[in-house]
Amino acid sequence: MTKIFEFSQLKAKTANSEVASDEDNKNNGYLMFGFLVFIYLLTIFCFWKYSKFLLPEAASEHGGDYDQLMLWSFVIIFIVQFITQALLHYFAFKYRGEEGKKALFYADNDRLEFIWTIIPVIVLAGLIIWGLYTWTNIMDVNEEDDPLIVELYAQQFNWTARYGGADNVLGDANVRMIDIDRANVLGLDESDPNAADDIIVKELHLPVGRKVNFKMRSQDVLHSAYMPHFRAQMNCVPGMITEFSFTPTITTAEMRQKPEVMEKVARTNAIRAERAAAGEPNSDPWEFDFILLCNKICGKSHYNMQMKIIVESEEDYQAWIESQTTFGETVTAAE
Ligand SMILES: [Cu+2]
């Protein structure tokens, strides 16, 4: 209906009212420049305002390689984006429409095409090969160097961890063998001799400097074990065991002394003090801790699916693990 109305009005208008005038084109050209300035200013503002939200120094052995790869990818993207945006907006201004100006017919240029193909090929191939090399190194989960074996068990909406006990071997487990009445929350096979000394906990303790092999399981849906401070993430898939391995290099106590972490804690606690003064909830002072999060939207309480991780000295870890009850002891107590 609108279209019909518009057509019926055509004759009433002056001949060229639908065609942009030189004045219109010039204004649009300047607006393009204005937009360029806007996105540059926005970039600077975001760097200034939000870089403090980035993660602190990586607390795992492979974390540094990961961060380097990420940094260089961003540096390259940033430089390319900075130059191409300037060119794009400048050309939009320079070649704006003008009365009597005709576009040049320019079929192709082999040399130009070669240049703009070969440069991205070299840069991208470099990044991809470097990325593959880093990935292969990080994902090399093996049993050399006597790693600590830890199971991470995901379910809606919490985490449970299991240590292999004195023999560092996890007993067989299957969701079908879960027996809540017998405190067998992870479905351990009670007939497996390796299961009796397993230790089931709700807080993860790791000795600094020792490699840890994580074996992940899920009870219900897809979850993802995400340990941001160690630059580690792996999906937890029902029906299979996935693995990730890393060596923690910084203890919780050391991490709390890092300037960037202290700043973050001070910032958060300033906000919490304000909330406390206003009588609002969630206003207790906060202390930094490493954390295991779920990074797959797995249901309505997904946001709160987390477990505390404590990295400590070998002695402190030994003292802690010795104070825990084994699966065998728990089951006997349940009987
Ligand atoms: Cu989850």
From TrEMBL:
Uppermost EC category: translocase
The way this protein sits in the membrane is described as: Multi-pass membrane protein
Catalysed reaction per UniProt?
A: 4 Fe(II)-[cytochrome c] + O2 + 8 H(+)(in) = 4 Fe(III)-[cytochrome c] + 2 H2O + 4 H(+)(out)
Presence of keyword Transcription: no
- CC terms in the record's Gene Ontology section: plasma membrane
Which PROSITE patterns does the entry link to?
A: COX2_CUA (PS50857), COX2_TM (PS50999)
Residue ranges occupied by any Cytochrome oxidase subunit II transmembrane region profile domain in the UniProt entry? 47-142
Q: Where in the cell is it found?
A: Cell membrane; Membrane
The organism's superkingdom is given as Bacteria
Key word Transport present: yes
Q: Show where the Cytochrome oxidase subunit II copper A binding domain sits.
A: 145-323
What's one GO BP annotation on this UniProt entry? ATP synthesis coupled electron transport
The alphabetical list of record keywords is: Copper, Electron transport, Membrane, Metal-binding, Respiratory chain, Translocase, Transmembrane, Transmembrane helix, Transport
Q: Which residues cross the membrane?
A: 30-50, 70-93, 114-133
InterPro entries, from UniProt? CcO_II, CcO_II-like_C, Cupredoxin, Cyt_c_oxidase_su2_TM_dom, Cyt_c_oxidase_su2_TM_sf
> Which is one GO molecular function term here?
cytochrome-c oxidase activity
Q: How is the cofactor bound?
A: Binds a copper A center.
Q: What is its EC number?
A: 7.1.1.9
Cofactor(s), by name? Cu cation
Family membership noted in the UniProt record:
Belongs to the cytochrome c oxidase subunit 2 family.
The family database entries (PANTHER family) matched by this protein are listed as: CYTOCHROME C OXIDASE SUBUNIT 2, CYTOCHROME C OXIDASE, SUBUNIT II
Query: What does this chain do?
Result: Subunits I and II form the functional core of the enzyme complex. Electrons originating in cytochrome c are transferred via heme a and Cu(A) to the binuclear center formed by heme a3 and Cu(B).
What is the designated name of this protein? Answer: Cytochrome c oxidase subunit 2
Which organism's genome codes for this protein? Answer: Robiginitalea biformata (strain ATCC BAA-864 / DSM 15991 / KCTC 12146 / HTCC2501)
* Lineage of the organism: Bacteria, Pseudomonadati, Bacteroidota, Flavobacteriia, Flavobacteriales
